[in-house]
Each structure stands twice: as structure tokens, then as C-alpha cells.
Amino acid sequence: VGALADGVRAGERGALSRAITLVESTAPRDVQAAADLLQTLQPLFGRAVRIGISGAPGVGKSTFLDALGTHLTAAGRRVAVLAVDPSSQVSGGSILGDKTRMPRLSRDPRAFVRPSPGGATLGGVARRTREALLLCEAAGFEVVLVETIGVGQSEVAVAGLVDAFVLLVIGGAGDELQGLKRGVMEHADLVVVNKADGDGKARALQACADYAGALDLLRGPAPAPRVLACSATHGEGIAAVWQAIEAHLERLGRGALDDRRRAQAGRAFDEAVAELLRERLLAQPETRRRLAELRAAVEAGTLAPAAAARRVFADGG
Ligand SMILES: Nc1nc2c(ncn2[C@@H]2O[C@H](COP(=O)(O)OP(=O)(O)OP(=O)(O)O)[C@@H](O)[C@H]2O)c(=O)[nH]1
Ligand SMILES: [Mg+2]
User: Fold this and answer.
1) How far, in Å, from the CA of 63 to the mean position of ligand 2?
2) pLDDT tens track for 249-289
3) Which of 27, 35, 107, 157 lies deepest, with the highest CB count within 10 Å?
4) How far is residue 54's CA from residue 150's CA, in Å, rounded to a whole number?
5) How far is the CA of 234 from the centre of ligand 1 (A)?
6) Is 58 touching ligand 1 by the criterion CB < 6 Å?
7) 93-97, 165-169, 244-248: least confidently modelled range
8) The whole model's pTM is what?
């Protein structure tokens, strides 16, 4: 752990990769080593700008991150991209793990691109991603970008890990206001309409106006997020998106940002405790047996779910 921590501190990407693999491991001795490693590196956490990028499959998240990341490294900043793929537990492989979709950034010496694997639970994915993000900070990355595919609640989970959350959409996809109905918009600090190029340009600009109008209504008195258009493939509007992100963070101010991070750390603790409780409980064979019985009774309709849950504990489990 000591050598690994030194490697991460020195910004060695091999060490960073191994450290992330360690926090992702579920083997008992790795879990302890990972906790030690994170504790050792703790003083180096908190130094990066943390940005989440989400959007429906195919809107251009990876292409956009390749463009944005390259824009930032060209300005001398070190950039890490963590790609979260909650579908990988179903598909058996990480779709986002296909690094060729960030061709420039993957080869950029100032960048680090890492697909993070799925996990049994969204909470587990969120924890690993949070820890990977912290490790990137300890390795000296100044901007950490977290890509998540817009599936179910994963976006909301990622919004809870970052300083600013960007929702990427496209215009005229027959689903004008993607995200609105899923409530994801409520978490967006910035909405970016991608593919504003060629034949799609007019559609994208129209979508921009539509989103701006809808967000005004949705947010009520709270300031609505800005809506911008860009073309990830042409590199147009990318600099403006970054400016808008920085302006948002500046408007928020250091104090509000620190509050947000404190609340996030507190939630991470709550979740770690809940995960540990569950793990410890399930480690007892007697409890597992009892749970199976109770679950069968609930499914058979002889016990109500809440009443059955209480019995798990009433029996000393
Ligand atoms: N015209 C145009 N096409 C784009 C743009 N950005 C991405 N694309 C294309 O859209 C397709 C999907 O791009 P990706 O970057 O892989 O999209 P993604 O959102 O990361 O996709 P998933 O990871 O599968 O959810 C690719 O064929 C890209 O070339 C853009 O700005 N303009
Ligand atoms: Mg992608």
C-alpha cells in the first residue's frame, strides 16, 4: 500500500490504474488495503474540478469528452475521464470501455481515461466511482470528468459525486425534451445540445430554445441552467461550454461548493455504513436462511413486506 500510495502521489498512471483496480476489488484483503490506501492519500483529495456528463445513448458523450478533454489538456491541464457504465452488469462487458471512442484523449500524455466497471448495485458503482475520482485527485489531475450513460437513476447518482452536472442532449430526435420527464433536468447545472452541425444545426438551435423555455418553467424561482449548443465532432462551442461550467462554479462560490462536497462526503459515509451492515448481516448463514424463508412468505402473500422485514431482526438476526 505504501509503494502504491507513493506511485499515485507521483502521478504515475500505472500506479493510479492499480489503485483504482484495488478499490474496485471485492476480495476481503483488497477491501482492507483499499481503505488503508484511501486513508493514506486523504490529504490530497479535493483538489480537482469534478464534472459529471450524462445523456442518452449515442448523443455523443464520449466524442464530447474527447473534445472537451483535449481542449483542457491543450491549455496545460491534466484531465482524467472516468466512464461509468451501469449497463455492463447486464451486457457482461463495458460498452464505455471502448477507448477508441476517445481517440485523442486516450493518447494524450496529460490525460487519463478509465472505464469503471459496473457493479451489483448502483450504490456500489457510485462508491467505486467516487473513490476512483479521489484517487485521480491524489494523482494530481486537475479536472475529473465522469461520463455516465443516461440509464435510469445512474445520472442522479453521478450528480451526487460532482461539483457540476452537464446533461448532453440532441435536437429533433423525436424526443425533444429528453431527460425532462425522468426528472434528470432537476440535477442539471448546464444543458448542452450536441450535434449542432451540418443538417442537424437548425434542429439543435431549435432544441436549445425549447430546453431554455422548458427549464425556465421547471425551475420556477431558482435560476435555470444555461443551455448551449455545440458540435463535438467539429470542436465548435466546446470552449464556450467550458467557460459556462467555470462561470457556474464561480457563481456558486467556494463556500457553496465546499458545502456540497461536505454533504456528498457525509452521504458517502452513510452509504458505506449501510453497505457494511448489509454485508455483515448476509455473512451469517442463519440470517440468509431466515431471509429466504421470509421472502418466500412475502411472495406467497402470507406476510406483508414491512412486517416480514421486522421479523428479520425480531429473531435476533
Ligand atoms: N454530427 C455529429 N455527430 C456526432 C457528434 N458527436 C458525436 N457524434 C456521433 O454520434 C455517435 C455516438 O457518439 P458517442 O460519442 O459514441 O456517443 P455516446 O453518447 O458516448 O454513446 P454511448 O457511450 O453509447 O452512450 C458517433 O457516431 C459520433 O460520431 C457531433 O457533434 N456531430
Ligand atoms: Mg460513450
Assistant:
1) 7
2) 999 999 999 999 999 999 999 988 998 898 888 999 999 99
3) 157
4) 6
5) 12
6) yes
7) 93-97
8) 0.88
